[in-house]
Amino acid sequence: MIEWRWFSGWTEAEMVPRLAKARTLERNFPEVSGEMTLEAGWNQVRSESVLGHEAPGQPVPGSLFERAQQVLETFDFSDPRIVAWHFSAQEPLQGRTVLLELRSLGQQLRYLCGVRVGGTREEHGETCSVYGFSFETLHGHIEAGREWFLLRKDHQSGAVSFHIEAAWRPGQFPNWWSRLGFAMVAPRYQRAWHRLTHVRLRELVLKHPELVGQHASSGQLEHSGHEVKTAPVQFYAQRAHGRRETQLEEEIEAMTRGHGWTALGMGILAGMRSMSAPTLASRWLARTQPNSEDRLARFMAHPWAPRVLGLLAVGELIGDKLPMTPSRVTVVPLTGRMLSGALAAASVTPERRRGRRLAVAALGAVAALASSWAFYSLRRTASKKLGVPDVAVALTEDALLAGLASRLLPTFEAPTGRVVTLPT
Question: What is the pTM of this model?
């Protein structure tokens, strides 16, 4: 049922029949929670922030926990500059169908998609209280997946925290350019919305109690989106700026790239600098799979491997700038780069079937061959025909290599800002 519009949204009269239609739709994925893993192609997001502290013990009326619960029930935690919610409050929360208005490009491009509250939790135990719900995407949504929003109060310390946990992958698209645009900018918008959700919830419960539990507007339907001053939607710089604004205690984002894309990327790295791909693979495996049952992965993850490969990579970076260094496209260096790409690609793939792993290794080798010739030609053109100093061209290639390496494998961003990779 997905629809899109430029420059304007949908009137309430237009949304009423669309919401009725959305109630007839099923979710657009068959998997249950335990099956929505990185290995199965699902991207993972998890975060936690502390909203504040209140008196120890179970939540009481008017407490921070209760105010946050009311914000969740009205869906007002969502930043309306990115996602606005339209629904009927007459429906029970469990099973409630909601229209999401997804806004991008300065709110000029909008998509209308359906989701449903799939599960709810309300628990008051001896040590903590928990409240929240999940929503599941319906047929016609540009994403497929499930997302949980949970409040938790520790009865001993009085700390009230907010948790988000999601598993998602691309869904259905109305046209080719939407699919292309989603691949290019959607992860940044998702990250911006995800982090601003923590900011907005804290702002509402701590600074705007008069808005808590109130719908932004109400008629035939209810709508989320009170105007609350928070950080701008700067999705190009959201990773750096967003952490300070959200005060996240923990954030994990693991994006599945697919075996083919990872192998291709490893091959390109090997073609640029032969030791870069195995060094990256070794460091990644040492942090994420040090005790892997796979012999190749375990060998690459051995404590000495990242150190040795790292020293070789540094030596290569220095030697690459020396005039006596042989061309990368002569037989021996080119063969070495292909073997390097094959080794790195095969070691980081979770595939254990011999045929599939050989195919991944072959892709890494071919990518290394193509990359070697491509960057050799570019470097030769820049230095010989355009007169750019060879050292400047080499340093530019180093910068490109660093950028590709930083985005190639899934990462874990700890509260300290330290970046650690997650398994694919």
Answer: 0.67
